[in-house]
């Protein structure tokens, strides 16, 4: 059958449609509740989707991923609290607009900007993913090792303020993945003679522990009862033609920047949103309005933050390097379903690519429609007690992890990972590189060992320009935060003398 | 909740972002170092079916263990030299510690009882009643209605629909 028809027909089944609708609803809810991250929701949903067909599971996970981009703008605008980190920049002008009685207009402009951003990013996925994958097909083991190193170092440099802690987080993930059987010889490592340990740690227990349990325990630890009442007067809803014309330019330019940022592994919507807001301010005729309720500022930030989605999916599918932590979780799910994302995916399973693009497109359209309806009921959801949400998440974390193996010990593993995650977080060690290290560690090891069995490393460095460039980029991305900080400090020291 | 109960914990300071904690940084670096050394010892002790030498199954764990030790040394140097690094975490509350530890204790009890055959359909709602009580929610909606709704949901979705043996 034609891959396009095959990919679309997998979504036409009633179960896939039901999964899509559940994911859509969950994603919108996840976005609305500050504190529940998209990573946590996708991690939790993963445990329930493993027994489904890939198209059905992807329908739920990707629908959550896309629709949460819409839901998370609502608390940013109505209570000045971003639903997820990607909506941080939305608060800059969204909340001031709401305080001026323009909450409805802010919500509709935000929804339109998010739609434009996601659709722009989909162009990257549609037109660039296959050429990137085709190029990457030429990669040998040494190039693949260098690519994995690059993906890991980028997330390490972005995820933590301390390079030492970021590197440790990545290495910890790799270390956790070592337990089990050697990928080449099959020797047991760190199994201590126990047959149960040769299977290694459970991926679902790891991600639900690190993203679900850790998040809830940290919220219990830090929760403060200072609540801002949501703004309930929404005011005018639809933008005028003049307002739409005014936001077109910042949307186009900030969205373009967001698309570029999205292609960089691990650079997510939070960074893009702030960059997009700055860009919109730079090109505006009224920069003085920014931060005080500028419609251009809101459009710029929301287009940019949502336009990272396609890039994140592109690197995941074409290179097997997750674009963000949500994609890292999804990558793990796809591996469990027997689908290995990477350069050869486009040759082996083109239908899956079609399915993924279709789900993202349908989820964008459906989320836009839901978001543009007058969503007064959403303000009521913001009044829900956080303690109830903690309870629901904890119970579902337990059931979700248990359901993957029907063994209580898997849930015990999850609780232990949750406690380790809490300790790591309080010390300032990020969880993202741990998960990525766990996923990419075996890939890095197998490719490096194969490469070293074939030839000497020095020979590879001289004969393999792609691998050399990727390794140079990996080292550069690792040390760039330190170099850029020093350059900024030097510039700051020179500034007073210049004046 | 009273004002004093909601005061930030001493260790984490009282501002919007948790303060740097030099002692904790040193302890963390020590734990990382210890973990690296243990892993190195474990890696060298991996039993192989065929001793080939060179790039064998011990090689990669050894490389990673050395990397962990190096990052531990780096973290320790930062801690000893007083390099200030923002942890980007919210300050904790004293009461938050009690509630968090009680929640973890509750989860541990649930897992032990579940392991020994008590059904989760009973344990789950009881856990919710207990933690809502600990969090200070004493209304009937929190102690009866909410756990009852979750119990019904667990039964309908997981037991009946998904056939998960809870």
Automatic annotation (TrEMBL), chain A:
Leader sequence residues: none
InterPro entries in the cross-refs: DUF112_TM
Keyword Transmembrane: yes
Domain DUF112: 17-436
Naturally occurring in which organism (per UniProt): Tessaracoccus rhinocerotis
Protein name, UniProt field: DUF112 domain-containing protein
A Pfam family matched in the record: TctA
UniProt superkingdom: Bacteria
TrEMBL record, chain B:
InterPro entries per record: DUF1468 (IPR009936)
Transmembrane helix as UniProt keyword: yes
Coiled coil (UniProt feature): none
Keyword set includes Transmembrane: yes
Domain DUF1468: 27-166
Keywords carried by this UniProt record: Membrane, Transmembrane, Transmembrane helix
Transmembrane segments: 27-47, 59-81, 101-134, 140-162
UniProt name for this protein: DUF1468 domain-containing protein
Lineage: Bacteria, Bacillati, Actinomycetota, Actinomycetes, Propionibacteriales
């Amino acid at each position: 059958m034609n891959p396009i028809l095959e990919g679309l027909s997998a979504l036409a089944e009633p179960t896939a449609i039901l999964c899509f609708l559940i994911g859509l609803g969950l994603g919108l809810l996840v976005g609305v509740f500050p504190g529940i991250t998209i990573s946590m929701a996708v991690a939790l949903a993963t445990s329930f989707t493993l027994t489904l067909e890939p198209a059905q599971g992807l329908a739920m996970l990707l629908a959550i991923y896309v629709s949460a981009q819409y839901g998370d703008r609502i608390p940013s605008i109505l209570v000045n609290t971003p639903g997820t980190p990607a909506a941080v920049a939305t608060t800059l002008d969204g909340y001031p607009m709401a305080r001026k009685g323009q909450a409805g207009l802010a919500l509709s402009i935000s929804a339109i900007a998010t739609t434009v951003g996601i659709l722009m990013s989909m162009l990257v996925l549609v037109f660039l993913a296959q050429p990137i994958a085709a190029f990457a097909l030429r990669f040998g083991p040494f190039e693949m090792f260098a690519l994995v190193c690059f993906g890991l170092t980028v997330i390490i440099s972005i995820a933590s303020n301390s390079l030492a802690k970021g590197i440790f987080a990545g290495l910890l993930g790799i270390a956790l993945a070592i337990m089990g059987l050697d990928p080449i010889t099959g020797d047991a490592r760190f199994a201590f003679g126990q047959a149960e340990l040769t299977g290694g740690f459970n991926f679902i227990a790891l991600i639900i522990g690190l993203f679900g349990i850790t998040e809830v325990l940290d919220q219990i630890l830090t929760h403060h009862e200072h609540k801002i009442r949501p703004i309930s007067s929404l005011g005018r809803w639809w933008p005028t033609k003049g307002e739409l014309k005014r936001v077109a330019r910042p949307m186009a330019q900030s969205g373009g920047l967001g698309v570029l940022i999205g292609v960089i592994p691990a650079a997510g919507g939070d960074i893009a949103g702030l960059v997009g807001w700055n860009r919109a301010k730079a090109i505006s005729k009224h920069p003085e309005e920014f931060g005080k309720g500028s419609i251009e500022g809101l459009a710029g930030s929301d287009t940019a933050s949502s336009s990272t989605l396609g890039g994140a999916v592109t690197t995941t599918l074409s290179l097997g390097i997750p674009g963000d932590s949500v994609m890292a979780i999804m990558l793990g799910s796809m591996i469990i379903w027997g689908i290995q994302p990477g350069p050869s995916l486009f040759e082996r399973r083109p239908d899956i690519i079609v399915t993924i693009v279709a789900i993202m497109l349908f989820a964008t359209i459906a989320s836009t429609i839901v978001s543009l309806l007058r969503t007064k009921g959403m303000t009521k959801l913001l009044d829900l007690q956080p303690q109830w949400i903690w309870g629901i998440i904890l119970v579902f974390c337990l059931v979700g992890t248990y359901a993957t193996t029907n063994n209580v010990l898997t849930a015990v593993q999850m609780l232990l990972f949750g406690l380790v995650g809490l300790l790591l977080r309080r010390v300032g060690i990020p969880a993202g590189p741990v998960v990525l290290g766990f996923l990419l560690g075996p890939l890095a090891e197998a490719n490096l060992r194969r490469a070293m069995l074939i030839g000497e490393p020095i020979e590879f460095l001289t004969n393999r320009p792609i691998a050399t460039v990727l390794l140079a980029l990996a080292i550069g991305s690792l040390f760039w935060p330190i170099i850029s900080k020093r350059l900024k400090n030097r510039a700051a020291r020179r500034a007073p003398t210049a004046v | 909740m009273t004002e004093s109960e909601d005061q930030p914990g001493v260790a984490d300071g009282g501002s919007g972002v948790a303060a740097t904690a030099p002692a904790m940084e040193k302890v963390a670096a020590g734990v990382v170092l210890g973990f690296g050394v243990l892993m190195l010892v474990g890696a060298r002790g991996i039993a192989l079916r065929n001793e080939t030498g060179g790039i064998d199954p011990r090689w990669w764990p050894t490389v990673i263990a050395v990397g962990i030790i190096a990052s531990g040394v780096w973290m320790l140097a930062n801690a000893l030299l007083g390099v200030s690094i923002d942890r980007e975490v919210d300050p904790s509350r004293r009461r938050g510690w009690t509630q968090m530890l009680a929640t973890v204790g509750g989860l541990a009890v649930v897992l032990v009882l579940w392991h020994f055959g008590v059904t989760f359909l009973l344990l789950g709602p009881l856990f919710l009643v207990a933690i809502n009580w600990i969090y200070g929610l004493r209304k009937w909606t929190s102690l009866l209605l909410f756990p009852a709704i979750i119990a019904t949901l667990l039964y309908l979705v997981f037991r009946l629909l998904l056939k998960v043996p809870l």
